């Protein structure tokens, strides 16, 4: 479970990226962080996964405070960062193996886990190629395998389907549903409403660094009096900018 508590982050004097963001992402639930470009999603995620230190507020990962005990919090997290940051000379398989080893896996257990992920992500064909020159979608798959290799209880994904084609998007959705069915806490950010609508049990809408709505898709529709989720979002944010594909 992940609890964001009154997170604040400013960059310099002018930019308030995140202002008092609080929400809870439960286990066995897919929580979507939805908002237009520049809303503060990536900055929020970075604070959750301990890359950026909040100016104020904190977050708990399975009860562990990310500001006070970042290393412990990190062990309970699998992260797909916005910058996928791959090693060009390692193959896709080597990426997954390397991160598995960093998390203490080895031997047959590691081999089996890596094979399973290569199948789940439909990446057998690229498994033994160096990642240099990989397409955007191929890079996402490698980063995803790397994020999940240690079977984390909590999974944070920043715009996971960005740059993926239809088949790969479906593979990612299937994988996220599986993580949810396994009882994990899944949080992902997106600026694409359809993406969030297709997957999420719970939606946290962020605009200008603040949470402007938080609830199930049905609750969001009911609270805005709109029939379609699309209209509900537009009503919540006050603009359709950045929300449409
Ligand atoms: N390192 C930084 N230095 C200065 N400003 C930053 C930095 N990181 C983010 N910002 C600013 O903070 C605001 C929120 O950015 P953030 O990347 O969190 O938004 P986002 O919702 O993830 O947007 P997108 O969908 O475009 O990725 C923006 O105004 C951005 O320019």
- Kindly estimate the percentage of residues that lie in beta strands according to DSSP: 25-35%
CATH-derived architecture: 3-Layer(aba) Sandwich
Give the CATH topology: Rossmann fold
Q: Number of DSSP strands?
A: 10
User: What molecules are bound to this protein?
Assistant: adenosine-5'-triphosphate
Mean pLDDT: 90
Unreliable stretches: none
Helix content: 25-40%
CATH superfamily: P-loop containing nucleotide triphosphate hydrolases
Main sheet overview: 6 strands, mixed
What is the straight-line distance between the termini?
30 Å
The count of domains is 1
How many DSSP H or I helices?
Answer: 9
Pfam families: ABC_tran (PF00005)
GO molecular function: ATP binding; ATP hydrolysis activity
Protein name: ABC transporter ATP-binding protein
Keywords: ATP-binding, Nodulation, Nucleotide-binding, Transport
Topology:
Blueprint: E1 2-11, E2 15-25, E3 29-34, H1 41-48, E4 56-61, E5 64-65, H2 70-75, E6 77-80, H3 92-102, H4 107-120, H5 136-148, E7 154-158, H6 166-181, E8 185-190, H7 193-199, E9 202-207, E10 210-215, H8 217-224, H9 229-237
Parallel strand pairs: 3-8, 3-9, 6-7, 7-8
Antiparallel strand pairs: 1-2, 1-4, 4-5, 9-10
Bound molecules: adenosine-5'-triphosphate.
Summarize the structure.
This protein is 38% helix and 25% strand.
Describe the structure in your own words:
- The protein has helices at 41-48, 70-75, 92-102, 107-120, 136-148, 166-181, 193-199, 217-224, 229-237, and strands spanning 2-11, 15-25, 29-34, 56-61, 64-65, 77-80, 154-158, 185-190, 202-207, 210-215.
- It is of the alpha/beta class.
- The protein has one domain: Rossmann fold, CATH 3.40.50.300.
- The strands form two sheets. It has a six-stranded mixed sheet, with helices on both faces. A four-stranded antiparallel sheet has the order 2-1-4-5.
- 42% of the residues are buried.
- The mean pLDDT is 90.
- Bound molecules: adenosine-5'-triphosphate.
- Adenosine-5'-triphosphate (ATP) binds at residues 11, 15, 17, 35, 37-43, 191.
């Amino acid at each position: 479970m992940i609890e964001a508590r009154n997170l604040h982050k400013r960059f310099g004097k002018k930019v308030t990226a995140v202002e008092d963001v609080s929400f809870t992402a439960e286990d066995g639930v897919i929580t979507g962080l939805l908002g237009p470009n520049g809303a503060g999603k990536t900055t929020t995620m970075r604070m959750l996964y301990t890359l950026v230190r909040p100016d104020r507020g904190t977050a708990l990962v399975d009860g562990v405070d990310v500001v006070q005990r970042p290393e412990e919090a990190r062990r309970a997290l699998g992260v797909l960062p916005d910058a996928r940051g791959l090693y060009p000379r390692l193959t896709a398989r080597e990426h997954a193996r390397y991160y598995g080893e960093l998390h203490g896996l080895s031997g047959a257990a590691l081999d089996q886990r890596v094979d399973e992920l290569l199948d789940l992500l439909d990446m057998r064909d690229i498994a033994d190629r160096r990642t240099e020159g990989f397409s955007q979608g191929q890079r996402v798959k490698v980063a995803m395998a790397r994020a999940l290799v240690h079977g984390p209880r909590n999974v944070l994904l920043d715009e996971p389907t960005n740059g993926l084609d239809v088949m790969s998007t479906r593979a990612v959705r299937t994988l996220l549903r599986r993580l949810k069915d396994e009882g994990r806490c899944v949080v992902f950010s997106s600026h694409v409403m359809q993406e969030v609508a297709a997957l999420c049990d719970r939606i946290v809408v962020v605009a200008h660094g603040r949470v402007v709505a938080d609830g199930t898709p049905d609750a969001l529709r009911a609270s805005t009096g709109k029939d379609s989720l699309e209209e509900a979002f537009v009503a919540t944010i006050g603009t359709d900018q950045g929300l449409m594909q």
